[in-house]
Amino acid sequence: MRSVSQPTETVWSLEGPKMTTGRGFRGLIPQWGGAARGAAAAVTAGIVAMVLAAGCTTDESPAGQNAPVQKGDQAASAPDQALQPFYSQKPAWAGCGDGFQCAKVKVPLDYAKPSGEQIEISAIRLPATGKRLGSLLINPGGPGGSGIQYARAARSIVSDDVRSRFDIVGFDPRGVGESSPVRCLSTRELDAYVALDASPDHPQEIADQQKLSRGFADGCEAQSGRLLPYVGTVNAARDMDVLRAVVGDSGLTYLGKSYGTYLGAIYANLFPKNVRALVLDGAVDPAVSSIKANEVQAEGFEVALKAFAEDCLSGPNCPFAGRTVDGVLGEISDLMTQADRQPLRNGLGDGRVINESIVVLGIAAPLYDHNAWPRLRLALGQALKGDGTDLLRMADILVDRQPDGTYSNQTESNMAINCVDHAFPKGAEAYEKAADAAAKVAPHFGSFVMWGSFPCSYWPVKPTGDDKPVTAEGAPPILVVGTVRDPATPYAWAKGLASELKSGLLLGYDGDGHTAYRTGSTCVDAAVDDYLIALKTPKNGTVCPEAG
Hints:
Helices cover 38% and strands 12% of the residues. It is of the alpha/beta class. It holds the Pfam family Abhydrolase_1.
């Protein structure tokens, strides 16, 4: 989503971790900070394999047994000699509150020049509470989501059984948060970008898109030019392999949500002999092109909006009572059109304009989490009366705008990583055509998602990604988890990734919201826990029923 991000409680609030994903949504991120699973990606936490060998088999031992994580480097593929100092470093872990330990890990800025400039990756861990198997590295999504903030919710985002057996290790990928963050725009400039017209249909609106999108790219080059060529997911995956070695594991155990599934898949492709177990929840399909991914993601949000409409009409406090589902969708379209012509009232008193873009972001944020739908009902009820304040608050969650008006670097890092990971078309004409096509399959979100990638049209560095299938040949079983009505990462992507991976196994969840693990399904939770702890895999293609 404009560049848009995941566990669980029955009450949705504006506090908590979040997750995100998206190549196009302008805001983004899930990955940790708000209770919305998206953040865009927000996690409502507490509220939002590669080698054990070529002949690895499923462990059918009882849950009380376990598959230990090997120590040392006997099983892991040996790093290049020039990289050995990074793999053998001993970071100084120090207490950083609430039982957590924090450290800085050094990695090369450019892996092709390991003796050159170095950067630091910030990491955090929560020690295991029981008989330790090893470390579980986690990533909430994005790109741009802070794994450090996400890990702070470790007591909610994984089960007690997993907490007992693993140190939970979060990290901010390069370019994100506390790890050499990409910076591009001032707070005022970010406010303007986030509110940029989402469906330009006039020459002046197109010109505004060009001006602000070019300004975004130029700002990134001016403030973070030395970092931009090196913030892609391939380098983040290499950093993750250094982290694996630094925490003492020869096989990586990993939980990635949303964009974190893409990071995990790239890791598996690079280091198939260094994995123990990978859970890829809310999967991104690496083989889908940038423009097609935007279109499919927009369609996923459209499916989620329809599910919300059905749920609203069947429950209490629905502002659309008496309408049909199509009637609800039509009224939401009218609301967006009205906000495009005449902004809604802003009760926060900060002078920001609540236009169509803010309305779309405010609707998208709670679609990440079914528990947030009651809040969306209330917000839409207010908006129909001309008050967009609550939609603005939820939009702020999605783009990680803080109460003091400042932003994390989520939006900036999301754009920087996406633009180097994927090839995007050049010029406004190509985007107009793509936005029109997307709007046909996703009338509420298509144009918005598509134009959210427009800064990549002006990006100062060439993309390094190739949008090809990831096979990870030689890896042990990799568990891909998909939610049938996931708005941000459509179920088709989970099926695609599972089929492309040579050892991929698909676990489906017939539910709503973004990601499935620790969102209420005991079926999903048990399958993931058994896999992480004992390497016991579910039958490929298993679909867990909707929780509740």
